[in-house]
Design brief:
By secondary structure, the protein is an all-alpha fold. It has a domain at 47-119. It is 77% helix and 0% strand. It has helices at residues 9-27, 36-44, 47-67, 76-118. Helix 3 (47-67) packs antiparallel against helix 4 (76-118). It is flat and about 65 Å long.
Length: 119
């Protein structure tokens, strides 16, 4: 018992029609649509973010080294958890200080640019 053959050309036309409609809907008069993914990647590639990550990692590592794992306080799991928690706090504090410094520098540059423009 042989199966009947069906024409597949009809389904190809439907798929092509759908892709054209999607392409037309996304163009919207030649304007590019905002892509949050691309914006996020560009943000991650910025030098400031790279520097903030380095500052956070350095602070966390310093905190872990300072806390040490050889002390006899509590059980090993509790000490490790406490050390990681303190490392996170140190990293957050370091990033906060660095961001504060950056903002102060931007404000100072903005003031000098305004006073230079008035003169």
């Amino acid at each position: 018992m042989a199966k009947k053959t069906t024409s597949k050309s009809g389904s190809k036309k439907k798929a092509t029609g759908r892709s054209v409609a999607v392409a037309r809907a996304s163009s919207r008069g030649g304007r590019e649509k905002f892509d949050a993914g691309d914006a996020f990647v560009k943000l991650l590639q910025s030098p400031l973010v790279a520097e903030l990550v380095a500052v956070a990692a350095t602070a966390a590592l310093a905190s872990l080294a300072e806390h040490g794992f050889s002390s006899s306080q509590g059980t090993r799991g509790k000490r490790a958890g406490k050390a990681v928690k303190e490392a996170g706090k140190a990293a957050a504090a370091a990033v906060g200080r660095r961001l504060g410094t950056e903002i102060d520098e931007i404000k100072a540059a903005s003031k000098s640019a305004k006073s230079g423009a008035k003169a």
